[in-house]
Write a structure and sequence with these properties.
45% of the residues lie in helices and 20% in strands. By secondary structure, it is α/β, with parallel strands linked by helices.
């Protein structure tokens, strides 16, 4: 089974108690971070927004409140996750099962997009970023929320002790799948650091990229804008191998 299929199956198994596990594991901070991410998506009240890897719809619903006269499309490849999301319907939300690497959506069709706690599970981050840029209107913003590695050594050690030690235990007890909550922290190990990921944004279709640390850098918002020019030219592909090399030499 390839990584994408394995990750999809894993999220299907933990879908039912996913939100509760996140709340307990983060002490409720995940909701505050999601709210901050939604606020960073530049839009109007009639905007058409996209929530990628939307899972149970926690971030999707926050985006929907920002566009009372618009709409939000939530996309995820896990049908069990979407089934949980659909239990909390809102008038201006629709959900669609799809792979973020091959979105069944027209070019330049959204005024903004977001993703939360998912990019580190994507098998090809550069391709994903290019696909997101493709479906955004010129100048539209993309906001990515993800756990990260704090720069402060003391905070980093404390965070790693909790993230790699306590999270698998707490998540396994509450989420009901110990293996899944052992994998989720491990997925951060080879994930690009904050500056490397910002470089990947710039190399794969985004301008005006900035990184906003949350709670000392245990999580980070990356914000970028789709280019204003219609040609959508990007720098030469910034590969996962290049990211790993950049991290090695950092």
């Amino acid at each position: 089974m390839d990584k994408g299929s394995a990750v999809r199956d894993m999220f299907g198994k933990i879908a039912r108690r996913y939100d509760l596990a996140n709340t307990v594991m983060t002490g409720g901070m995940d909701a505050l971070w999601r709210k901050r991410a939604a606020a960073c998506v530049a839009t109007t009240e009639s905007g058409q927004l996209l929530d990628l890897c939307c899972g149970t719809g926690a971030s999707t619903r926050m985006l929907a409140r920002r566009v009372p006269g618009g709409s939000v499309v939530g996309v995820d490849f896990s049908e069990p996750m979407l089934a949980v999301a659909r239990r909390h319907p809102m008038r201006n939300i629709s959900y669609q099962q799809a792979d973020v690497l091959q979105l069944p959506l027209p070019d330049e069709s959204f005024d903004g997009a977001s993703m939360a706690f998912s990019l580190r599970n994507i098998v090809d981050i550069p391709a994903c970023l290019r696909e997101i840029a493709r479906v955004l209107k010129p100048g539209a913003s993309f906001v990515n929320l993800e756990v990260s590695k704090p720069n402060n050594a003391i905070l980093r050690r404390a965070f790693f002790a909790y993230f790699y030690g306590a999270i698998p235990v707490i998540g396994g007890l509450i989420g009901g799948d110990a293996a899944a909550y052992r994998y989720l922290p491990q997925s951060l190990i080879n994930f690009p650091d904050v500056q490397t990921l910002a470089g990947m944004f710039r190399a794969n279709g985004f301008a005006s990229v900035r990184a906003i640390p949350l709670m000392g850098g245990v999580a980070t918002l990356h914000v970028g804008a789709a280019p204003l020019n219609s040609t959508r030219t990007v720098d030469p592909p910034f590969s996962q191998h290049a990211a790993a090399t950049a991290m090695h030499h950092a």
